[in-house]
Amino acid sequence: MTIQWFPGHMAKARREITEKLKLIDVVFELVDARVPLASRNPMIDEITAGKPRLLLLNKADMADPEVTRLWVEYFQGKNLPVLVLNSKTGQGINKIEAAAKELVKEKFDKMKAKGIIKPRAVRALILGIPNVGKSTLINRMAGKNIAVTGDKPGVTKRQQWIKVGSSLELLDTPGILWPKFEDQSIGLKLAVTGAIKETLLDFSEIVLYALNYYKDHYPQRLQERYSLEDIPQEGIQLFDEIGKKRGCLMSGGYIDYEKTAEIVLRDIRAEKLGRLSYERPDQV
Ligand code: GDP
């Protein structure tokens, strides 16, 4: 899928989210645990207009567990409740219901005391940029027994609710946010993690970005994977070394950068370099 956000798209996405927000009590903001800032919409506070929010660090199975732990501390320190997930296997999703209940407890208690509402399930919406795993998570939470609870009053469009556990209802379609592309590194991070298609950016540039990051943060992984004795100072030299090791040479002994980039990107995608994160809270 090619993602290109034009002002018109953004306005439409925002309108759709605003409609959905009217129906729900809490927002589940889904981000990629490897790039929790780049995969986030910076306008999220404004967009969600004060709805209680639970941040879900998805794809944690591919992220560096130590860095994910730091991110959890970081967001908790900002009073943003956070959970760590693997939506593919379902790991961590059993904690969502309780966390959602906790988020609305005060408001629900007050409304109940005033007799405004009867006890009812907490209604939630999943929000996130494309490819962070929204559909995967919705399917996981729905499980095999999708219990559609029907339309709610005041809804113009048909909205289906998925019942999760005894006290949570999830809107069956997520809210789609747009990523922020103003800073070039954001696009590169999203390309490395597969959130946007490589073809949108220069292939070698993506890999060079990743290699530079590994050089500083995961030098050992590089050494092991590509049997390097030393890690060069410059990312471009690293490119050369890996190209040589992998026999990516053109006539005249020049390094075939395109081929080298392809090999490295394939390794990244296949997790041959292990679990990696591309953002750390101490660099915010
Ligand atoms: P959406 O665009 O946000 O709805 O994203 P999808 O649900 O279509 O997921 C995008 C890709 O990420 C798919 O290939 C999923 O299988 C994969 N994916 C989703 N969640 C996880 C996860 O927790 N771990 C891993 N490894 N892959 C995931």
Give an overview in words.
The protein is α/β, with parallel strands linked by helices and 284 residues long. Helix content is 41%, strand content 12%. The protein has helices spanning 7-21, 44-48, 65-77, 96-113, 134-142, 184-192, 203-217, 219-226, 235-245, 257-269; strands at residues 26-32, 53-58, 82-84, 122-128, 161-164, 168-171, 175-176. Strands 1, 2, 3, 4, 5, 6 and 7 form a seven-stranded mixed sheet that branches. Helix 7 (203-217) packs across helix 8 and helix 7 crosses helix 9 (235-245). Guanosine-5'-diphosphate (GDP) is lined by residues 58-59, 61-62, 85-88, 128, 130-136.
**Estimated radius of gyration:** 22 Å
Q: Helix fraction?
A: 40-55%
Q: What bound compounds does this protein have?
A: guanosine-5'-diphosphate
Mean pLDDT, rounded to whole units? 90
Please state the overall shape, judged from the principal axes of the Cα atoms: elongated
Biggest sheet overview: 7 strands, mixed
Number of helices: 10
